[in-house]
Amino acid sequence: MINALAMMQQAAPQITMDEVVSNALKSQGEPNGVIVQYVPKTNRFISQGGQVRNALAARDPDGGEWILINKDATGADLMPQTQHEVAHILAWRRYGEKIKPHGSEFLRMCRQVVTERQNEFCRRGR
C-alpha cells in the first residue's frame, strides 16, 4: 500500500518552459529556432497597467526570435503566459510583424496554442 508521502515523491516531473515553447511550436508544425532565456525581472516585465508579466516575446532585426522569462516566475500563470508569447511568435511568422499585438491574427494563434485558461490569456487588450 502506497502512502500519501510516497505518492507525492512519485509525482510527474515538471515540464520546463523550453519544452512548453518547443511543444507549442511543434503542435503548429513550426520549427523551433526560438531562444528561451531566463532573465532577472526588469521594467520590461511590468505592463502599462502595472501588472507583472512572467514572459515576453521579442524579435530582433536579424530575424532571431526570443522568449524572455522572468527567472523568478513561478505558479500557474507561467505556462499559459509562455504559450501566449509563443502565439505572438507564430502570428509574426504567419502574418508578418505589422499585425496588431493582440489583434485577430494573434487571437487565432493564441486559441490554438494556449492549453488552459484561454479566456484569460487569449483576449484583446492584454
Structure description:
The protein has a single domain (15-119), classed as Metalloproteases ("zincins"), catalytic domain (Zincin-like, 2-Layer Sandwich). With 126 residues, it is an alpha+beta fold. The chain has helices spanning 4-9, 17-27, 78-95, 104-113, 118-121; strands at 34-39, 55-59, 65-70. Strand 2 (55-59) and strand 3 form a beta hairpin. It has a 3-stranded mixed beta sheet.
Shape: globular
- Tell how many strands the DSSP assignment holds: 3
- How many individual domains? 1
Number of helices: 5
By CATH reckoning, the class would read Alpha Beta
CATH topology assignment: Zincin-like
Overall CATH architecture: 2-Layer Sandwich
The gyration radius over C-alpha positions equals: 16 Å
Order of strands side by side in the largest beta sheet?
Answer: 1-3-2
Percent range of helical residues? 25-40%
| CA-CA gap between termini | 48 Å
In short:
The protein has one domain: Zincin-like. The protein is 39% helix and 13% strand. It has five helices and three strands.
Write the layout of secondary structure elements.
Elements lengths: L3 H6 L7 H11 L6 E6 L15 E5 L5 E6 L7 H18 L8 H10 L4 H4 L5
Parallel strand pairs: 1-3
Antiparallel strand pairs: 2-3
Helix pairs in contact: 2-3, 3-4
